[in-house]
Amino acid sequence: xxxxxxxxxxxxxxxAAAEVPVLLEYWQPGIGWKILGRATTDADGRCRDLTREHTxxxxxxxxTFDAGAYFKLREAETFFPEVVVxxxxxDANAHHHVPLxxxxxxxxxxxxx
Length: 113
Prior knowledge:
By secondary structure, this protein is mainly beta. The chain has a single domain (3-109), classed as Transthyretin/hydroxyisourate hydrolase domain (Immunoglobulin-like, Sandwich), CATH 2.60.40.180. The chain has one helix spanning 67-73, and strands at residues 3-10, 15-16, 21-28, 32-40, 46-47, 59-65, 83-89, 95-97, 100-103, 106-109. A hairpin with a 2-residue loop joins strand 9 (100-103) and strand 10 (106-109). The protein starts with a strand and ends with a strand.
């Protein structure tokens, strides 16, 4: 299964981060960033396939998480209103899972499976 998915966990609450808007873009040299997909995390904090309407290509991709909207819904402050993760897809036939561990004052990410 090829594609790009994500899972957002709110580490301050110790649970999934539902209702986080996520934008997926692809870098086209000489043109710029092209939108491939938009989604909002489900009740489990997941966006299961952000490329469902497009064929995955090799090259740079960017996930933008609207953390500000997520924390605003919870009436909480955040230092990072937006989290941007740029990564390189080297095998378009592989699945790429990019989890985000999020809190109001920090975040981390990694290549998942």
